[in-house]
Design brief:
By secondary structure, this protein is an alpha+beta fold. The chain is built from three helices and twelve strands; from the N terminus they run ββββαββββββββαα. It has a domain of 118 residues: Beta-clip-like, CATH 2.170.270. The longest helix is centred in the C-terminal third of the chain and has 11 residues.
Amino acid sequence: MIKALNYQEFVPYSKKIMLGESKIHGIGIIAKKDIKKGQIVFVIKGKVKHWEVNDKKTALYGEHWIGVGKNTWIDPVGWGRYINHSSNPNCGIVGKVLVRAMRNMRKGEEVTIDYSTTEEQVLWHLEDAMTGGKVRSIQFLPHGKFKEYFPYIPKYFQRVYHRHHKIKNSHG
């Protein structure tokens, strides 16, 4: 059983989710109850940041930032600050800020997204805490994963993927 943490003052009240110990990294977002596929889990809020990546060092700036467009990120507050990466996520982002369940989730399950779906900088990467593999930007997402995630990838990042792979069909 995952224990709730006393970080709730940093996030708005939710009937669906809470903060708790993560098996992935530090603190994570935990389902308080079962969540059905397609349900909105939370809305990402925070200040918009504009940042130009010029090299490997600047590509790794903004540890918690979530990409929303070309050289544009949200520095999340509240729930968005605690969402962890998974190569087998249960949520994705619809629009720019709606975190929506990609599949049915069980009470106690950690809410995750695939970070590659919100990053376009080819110099960006991180180590997957669960697999030890390297997570890279949307352009490097395997085609099968892109098709699986498609409705849960922000439109801007869908276009980046399509341009990179010269895909004309808007459905992957």
